[in-house]
Amino acid sequence: MFSPYLAIFIFIHFVIYLDARTQCDDCRNLVADFHRGVDGTKDGGFLGGDVFWEELNLKNYAKSELRFIEILEKVCENGKFGCLKILEKHEDDLLEWWEGDRKVELFEWFCVGKVAQCCPEGTYGPECLPCLKWHDKICSGYGKCVGSGTRGGDGSCHCDTGYRHDNCTLCSHGYYKMNIDDNFSCVKCDTKCNGCDGPGASGCVACSSGFRMADGKCEDIDECDTNEICLENEVCSNTDGSYSCECIPGYQRGGKECVEDSAKEDL
C-alpha cells in the first residue's frame, strides 16, 4: 500500500525543487535583462557628432557607473518579485562584476557564484553535484537530470518514454533494446506484442489482446469464426486484433440493434 507519509515526503521535495528552479529562473532572467541593457546602451547616445569626440566619450562611457545605472533601468522591467528581490540585495555584486575584468560570464559569476541560486548545467543541488552519466551522457542521453542547473532536485533521471532505470539504460515494458554501434535505443514493440525482445510480430514474448502465438509469432485471432458473436441482422467484420459488427444491407443502426430502414424512420 502506498504510504501517505511517502506521498508527503515526495510532495515536499517536489515543492523544494520547484522553488529552487524558480529562484534560478529569476536570476537567469535578471542576467538576460542585464545583457539586453548592455546591448541597448552600446552607443551611449553619442553617435552623430565628431568622430574623435564620439570615440573619446564612448571609451569613457563603456565601463562607467552612468552606463551601469542605465542598464539597471532595463533590469526586472516585468516587475517580478523574485527578480526585484535579487536586484535589491545584490546590486553591489553586479557593479563589482561590471567594474571588474569580466573574464567570467555574468551568469556563471553572479547566479552560480555570488548569488548561488543556480548550478552549471549537468550539476544539481546545494553543492552542485554532477548528474548521473553513462558513456559521458547525462541520463544516457535519454532523460533529464532532476534539478540540473539549479540548487534543488535530487539528481535522479526522469527518463524519456520507453526508457527506465536509474540512468535510463533499460527499456520499459513494450519496448526492446536495439544496439547501434557503441550506443543503444529503445524501440517500441509491434502492436501485436504484449512485451517483446525484438522487432516485428516474431519478436513478441507474449501477445496483445486479440492476437495469439502461432509458429513463433503473434497473429490475429479471427473473432468472426466464433458463431453468434454478433446480434441478429448484423454481420461480423474482422479487424487487426479485434472485430466489429455491422448492419446487413437494408438495415441501419437504431440504438444497440440493427433495424430495418423503414422501421428507424418510424422511431
Explain how this protein is built.
It is a single chain. The protein has 267 residues and is of the alpha+beta class. It has three domains: 4-114, no CATH class; 124-171; 223-266, Laminin (Ribbon), CATH 2.10.25. 34% of the residues lie in helices and 22% in strands. The protein has six helices and 16 strands. It has helices at 4-40, 51-62, 65-72, 81-99, 106-114, 261-266; strands at 123-124, 129-130, 133-134, 137-138, 143-145, 157-159, 163-164, 170-171, 175-180, 183-188, 211-214, 217-220, 234-239, 242-247, 251-254, 257-260. The strands form eight sheets. The chain has a two-stranded antiparallel ribbon with strand order 1-2. The chain has a two-stranded antiparallel ribbon with strand order 3-4. Helix 1 packs across helix 3, helix 1 (4-40) packs across helix 4 and helix 1 (4-40) runs antiparallel to helix 5. The radius of gyration is 32 Å and the shape is elongated. The relative contact order is 0.07.
